[in-house]
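Section 5: illustrative case.
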């Protein structure tokens, strides 16, 4: 039984991520759900040594902060000590792996901060349209969080050419307004990494999940962060236990991350 009263209100989705879906020709029976890849198969790439190398390369292009400097040293040391046996994943290695196979044309992110995760997607899909939702909490995690201008200059560094749509403010009101005004928009990839309170994360997931295309990926960060231990339960309740998704997670080391692909 769900511990939360709030659940996503899905309706029929008629938009697909064509790169990982198979759709029967017109007048032929669509026997299987269209999704052709399991989350596990994409998760393998996310924990590969190549993904950690790629993650390091993305961070090296961006404006450093205390956290990214720590992560760069962590990646370099993990690769040096453990090589292909490391099997580490985080939001960056997951987004890299997903962007390679999904070839996203549209990406929505709640919780952008200094642009690390949007730049990760853009580094593999430079023409992708990116929809960014953040209230730019001052001094977030003890680091400057200046907003649009920094994120835009970071996106330039990874040669992003797609549309950039910034929606500034509290996601619990901005998302509802945005979706009311854009009733046909659905996304190839969505990341939920904004409000880390239990109820806030539930509300964000409920707002965005119905707008994920068939074959699309939702990414949820920090599922084993020591300060937000309940997030793993939220993820399981709303996504992992819902059979419309195939899901994968790494909740052993680091702060943990999960992703899921929508089957119907
Ligand atoms: C964990 S950081 C995002 C990190 C980013 N995804 C990355 O990988 O580098 C969380 C961000 O969410 C924003 N945030 C927190 N609560 C929010 C809310 N209710 N609405 C919009 N943004 C919020 C903060 O301003 C912060 O920039």
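Designed sequence:
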């Amino acid at each position: 039984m769900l511990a939360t009263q709030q659940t996503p209100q899905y309706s029929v989705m008629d938009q697909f991520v064509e790169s990982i879906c198979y759709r029967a020709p017109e007048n032929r029976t669509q026997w299987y759900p269209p999704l052709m890849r399991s989350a596990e198969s994409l998760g393998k790439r996310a924990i590969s040594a190549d993904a950690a190398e790629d993650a390091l390369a993305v961070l090296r292009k961006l404006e450093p902060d205390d956290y990214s400097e720590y992560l760069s040293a962590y990646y370099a040391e993990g690769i040096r000590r453990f090589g292909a046996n490391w099997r580490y994943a985080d939001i960056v290695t997951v987004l890299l792996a997903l962007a390679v196979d999904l070839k996203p044309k549209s990406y929505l992110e709640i919780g952008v901060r200094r642009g690390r995760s949007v730049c990760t997607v853009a580094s593999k899909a430079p023409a992708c349209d990116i929809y960014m939702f953040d209230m730019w909490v001052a001094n977030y995690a003890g680091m400057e969080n200046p907003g649009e201008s920094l994120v835009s200059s970071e996106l330039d560094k990874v040669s992003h050419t797609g549309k950039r749509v910034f929606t500034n403010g509290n996601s619990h009101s901005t998302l509802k307004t945005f979706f009311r005004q854009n009733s046909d928009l659905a996304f190839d990839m969505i990341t939920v990494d904004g409000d880390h309170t239990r109820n806030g994360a539930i509300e964000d997931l409920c707002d965005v999940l119905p707008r994920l295309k068939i074959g699309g990926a939702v990414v949820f960060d920090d599922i084993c962060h020591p300060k937000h231990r309940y997030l793993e339960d939220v993820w399981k309740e709303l996504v992992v236990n819902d059979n419309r998704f195939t899901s994968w997670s790494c909740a052993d080391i680091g702060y943990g991350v999960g992703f899921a692909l929508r089957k119907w």
